[in-house]
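REQUEST ID: PR-0412
SUBMITTED BY: lab tech R.K.
PRIORITY: routine
TASK: structure prediction, single protein chain
INPUT:
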Amino acid sequence: MRIALINENSQAAKNAVIYNSLKKVADEHGFEVVNYGMYSADDKAQLTYVQNGILAATLLNSGAADYVITGCGTGEGAMLALNSFPGVICGHVETPLDAYTFAQINDGNAISIPFALGFGWGGDLNLQYIFEKLFCEKSGQGYPRERAVPEQRNKKILDGVREIAFKPLTDILKSLDRELVKGAFAGEKFQEYFFRDAKDEAIKATVKEIIG
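STATUS: complete
OUTPUT:
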């Protein structure tokens, strides 16, 4: 599994702490972590939580990433932004229990964490425990297990609703404000990582067109 880490501007100073906690858990599972930044509050490319959604959707739909870890001050804005796009199911995760139940019941591909609220002493440990519970088992198995069948059925229903409710990502990217989207792709290492890992040629071509 390839996991992308994305930070927006208000919490960019925590990027290294988040990355280290995530990588420690990912390494134990043989997963790869790709850090898309922001890397510091002073980065030239400043991401808003709305742009987190654009970037996350592009990475997931193109196959450049299998999972996205992101957030903002409260985690709410980033979650809403990610869920505004097709191919993304993002949960709001504050605790290890949130992480486990989201993975097992909702079987999503992204989480949004509040990196300001309650993030004090031991914040790095809470992150580590969140990531441990998020990836400790194959997702979508249901919780409690006796509820697995209806939960999996509901997830398929949700996937079907979302497939009808959203238009293709390439159309969305072309319809959005060009500068907003270019800003989402302006990270220091975006082009290096994205064009190396992305599989969907139509999305790659759209990104190239937008970047110019």
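NOTES: The chain has ten helices and five strands.
REVIEWED BY: pending
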